[in-house]
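thought: fold this chain, then report.
action: predict
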Amino acid sequence: MPKKIRWGVLGVANIAIKKVIPAMQRGEVCQVTALASRELARARSAAGPLDIPKAYGSYEELLADPEIDAVYNPLPNHLHVPWSIKAAEAGKHVLCEKPIALSPDETRDLMAVRDRTGVKIGEAFMVRTHPLWLRVRDLVRGGAIGELRAIHSVFSYFNADPKNIRNQAEIGGGAIMDIGCYPITMSRFLFGREPARVSSLVDRDPQMKTDRLSSVLLDFAPGHGLFTCSTQLVPFQQMQVLGANARIEIEIPYNIPPDAPSRIRIDDGSQLAGRATKTEEFPVVDQYTIQGDAFSRAIIDDTEVPVPLEDALANMAVISGVFRAAESGRWERP
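observation:
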């Protein structure tokens, strides 16, 4: 096994070009060696500034390259499963952007291919390996806030462009799939179990038909997870983790800055307006660098990837339940 995992990237998505690839290139055990687009000129144009040595004019060419160990798949949501399957069948390990699929059944199809081919496949929830989140989970599990009773979160931005893939309902666009998946996975991460049932209110854009404003209640029995996500609200994100004895406020929970310290605040509630709050600050790190190295080390050491498909399936089941609850107006079981 090489000292560094040689990565190929499918497509020239902004998240890959601007965030993930530069971060992975700073990793200890990552080496981005190839980039593919459906147009060779686009692949070369993106690969050049990033010092990626190989550029391919089709995804198939990249998957046929024997010098690539793993593939990062940041394609639009409806292409996650088809191209992850093709990568696995080509013998490549796969780190696929969230949400891993469009449905639980699609996720099961991917699991079957993983089991048949023997490659590693994981979902790219970069937050799950950030030191800030690992600290919050340790605090919760260690009893620092007493019994975990409720999690409140907001995640929003404003994008009403119908040409943007996040606003195309037929290919998996909308707020829940794009950003609602984050408070779902992190609520599950902190509670350490699955919600017994879910309820939701969804407001859809009248033209684009995507869910543009969604509020969701997750019943962790006991304990509640509550979040609002939107593609047409003022940009904002925050999470409150509320225990019987104290609370933890995560200042920027999801798009944690790669160029500034991150912070959590712990408040025992002894004084109003949070005057007894204690702040913990974390050194500057890039969560995409950590994610790439963690996945690469799982390949090198033959251990489990940070977010395996079993976890991805559980998250997808909750997402599916959220959409069903919006339609039925009732509680739904994931």
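thought: worth noting. The two ends are 39 Å apart (CA to CA).
final: tokens above.
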